[in-house]
Amino acid sequence: MKKEITIYDIAADVGLSPTTVSRALSNHPRVKDVTRNKILHAAKTLGYQSNIFASSLRKRKSNSIGVIVPKLNSAFQSAVLAGMEKTATQAGYNLIISQSMESLDKEISNTSIMFNSRVDGLLVSKAGTTDNIEHFRPFFQKNIPVLFFDRVPENNHCTGVVINNTQAIYDATAHLIKQGCKRIVHVLGNLQINVYADRLKGYKYALMDHGFVFDPANIITNELDEDSGERIVEKITQMKPMPDGLLISNDTSAASCLMALKKKGISVPEDIAIVGFNNDLISRMVEPNLSTVHYPSYHMGEVAMKNLINHLDDEHQEILQKTNTITLRSGLIIRESSLRKP
Amino acid sequence: MKKEITIYDIAADVGLSPTTVSRALSNHPRVKDVTRNKILHAAKTLGYQSNIFASSLRKRKSNSIGVIVPKLNSAFQSAVLAGMEKTATQAGYNLIISQSMESLDKEISNTSIMFNSRVDGLLVSKAGTTDNIEHFRPFFQKNIPVLFFDRVPENNHCTGVVINNTQAIYDATAHLIKQGCKRIVHVLGNLQINVYADRLKGYKYALMDHGFVFDPANIITNELDEDSGERIVEKITQMKPMPDGLLISNDTSAASCLMALKKKGISVPEDIAIVGFNNDLISRMVEPNLSTVHYPSYHMGEVAMKNLINHLDDEHQEILQKTNTITLRSGLIIRESSLRKP
DNA sequence: AAATACCTTGAAATCGGTTGCATACTTCTA
DNA sequence: TAGAAGTATGCAACCGATTTCAAGGTATTT
Question: Beta strand A331-333 with A292-294: parallel, antiparallel or unpaired?
């Protein structure tokens, strides 16, 4: 193993102390310009590479941010991560990413790994089964900022970046009602997750405000994956009378339903109007194009990261810490799948 | 700032030396069971957290793997990353992820950051404009394994994990010919990238083997994004005679073309047969379903990561280093978009 | 009982950068 | 020109875990 070049080698080379070399390399103002240049030059010549372990050890700072998502393999999450990466890199932070696979156990284990990796901050979108945030306690105790996005815990005293899910589905429901739908079925995921619980509220409120009665039979909770369409359509077709509106909590599932409906000869939007969620690529590619709710995923990544990093820079993090929720703008996008000609 | 608990505190607590504590905590066999338990218990009681900086500094090992992808925000990449994450986590490695945004400059900068972060190994899928691998030299010099996947450099002396792009497109082309296509247009991305260069070969070989003459006019290089369809179809419809087969190097673009064709009243597969690439979700959701080439993305992530980690564990890494290319199985999936009834 | 082998533990040096405090050297002011 | 104020540099003590070498202790063998 070749020997590493250290600041001591540089110091010896230029005839100065390691202290000065360290200062010069980290742009400390109290070093003469001539000296700094001499040191920088020597560093380059010798092929010096700073040892972040030593630096982190001394500074007690890793310069990296941890991110825990339920699943990497999703259009939404990868857009969020793209936004996070951009922002983190700009600010000089590394991104350590892991996925909880929707499992609380794995989330706990990931959290612990992140903690031991001494990330300077943590960004989390909860796993579906996570019903408490005990496992983040080590972070809270050490005052390491934890920020949630999209899926945030219930009684949180951490900042969360979200959209207004209630409003989004309220609008979508109202839209379907305006299109003449009388029996609207809402398909969503695990109701332990705030995202879906909030949407359910929006659905109920909208019904109420428009003089409809909420019927629990019109709620379907389901995996919202690629194969969910068959299962959902199966249920729907057995309802009597059959629903004429479908509000599905993600576009993949909505597209899947669309296919299953077509296969059964049920036409969209005439027999059933459909609204999806997320404004994924797929919503623009299926036929008819899916009405959906625009979710600012990339932007959410940027905002969450920027906010976390501000917490780090700011001395008064406790103050920011106790702030609230950042709500991003989302919005209903109306396309053919829910548009009935008058 | 509360004081950190160190192995010295534990040592003092149980009346042993830091050496023994260190050994006990890292499961060194030469510690009596009784002693080990006493130490483990004390560690838990005191709330000890190992300091990886100190550990990494001493061991010269970060226990993390760097990954550089062109874009995080892609169905293919996120599947690859999911596979990598799973494998890395299982093996006890962290994942540091960054994106080059298809820019050589950013790839260089990311590489340098990864190097300074002292990742134990690096996984890279090249940016489109990357035409040399000079910037990885620091890794080569320090004998830190670098492994490429999907997009690998030309004259590489690193292991690469790929699929047989030539064969894949050969098969797709042969399939279209068998379906009666006479004028097949091939749409692909930047030909500097091995992936597309290889596919072009496959296309040419297949034409040749079936008695067709290759015509450069039938090659379209294009961004393969969501909006590419309009542009591509525009070009196609101006060709005389119009092509009757379309081979598009990713499903997003293929789906986009499909939509644009429909809008023009050109029917698929009757007027033009289409084959996409990747077997993305979208290929199964558009109408008609897209024929495509299955790309084992998740699996590629697993294999690439597993291989890299093996390099790390193995003492004889130079030997492995000089091995070759790992080719994963891909395969043509025939669906309606290219299936002409006899 | 003495010699040998094995098991368990410890002292001290190391990994390399940072920083509080001290000192030497300039420059400016009265 | 003495003294004050400011600037540039250095000393040495960290930050904590790991590891080499050595030593003390126990068990086994002859």
Answer: antiparallel
Footprint of strand D on the protein (CB under 7 A): A 15-20, 23, 29-32, 35, 54, 57-58, 60; B 4, 6-8, 18-19, 22-23, 25-26, 48-51, 54-55, 57-59
Query: What is the residue-wise DSSP string for A94-157?
Result: EEEEEE-TT-HHHHHHHHHHHHHTT-SEEEE---TT----GGGHHHHHTT--EEEESS--TT--
Q: Check pLDDT > 70 for residue B31.
A: yes
Write phi, then psi, for A64 (nearest 5 degrees): -140, 155
Domain of residue B33 covers 7-50
CA atom of B84 to C1′ atom of C18, Å: 36
- Test A57 with B62 for CB contact under 8 angstroms: no
- Chain D positions with an atom below 7 A of a protein C-beta are 7-12, 14-20
Of B73, B94, B142, the CB nearest to A117: B94
Check whether B284 has a pLDDT greater than 90: yes
Phi then psi dihedrals of residue A222, to 5 deg: -160, 160
Cβ within 8 Å, pair A116-B64: no
Clarify whether residues B156 and B301 are in a common domain.
yes
| pLDDT higher than 50, residue B313 | yes
Q: How far is the CA of B32 from the C1' of D30 (A)?
A: 29
For residue B234, give how far its alpha carbon lies from the nearest alpha carbon of chain A (Å): 18
- A27 shares its domain with A81: no
Instruction: Please give the residue that has the higher pLDDT: either A315 or A284.
Output: A284
B288 shares its domain with B189? yes
Q: Which position has the higher pLDDT, A171 or A32?
A: A171
The CATH number linked to A34 is: 1.10.260.40
Does residue A178 share a domain with residue A92? no
**Domains held by chain B: number:** 3
Q: pTM (2 decimals)?
A: 0.93
User: pLDDT-derived band of residue B166, with 50, 70 and 90 as boundaries?
Assistant: very high
Contact B281 A73 (CB under 8 A): no
Which of B50, B74, B116 is opposite residue A78, by nearest beta carbon? B74
Q: Note whether B182 and B244 are within 8 A (CB).
A: yes
Q: Write out the two tokens for B13.
A: 């607590």
CATH code at B201? 3.40.50.2300
Q: Are residues A191 and A74 in the same domain?
A: no
Beta bridge partners of B188: B221
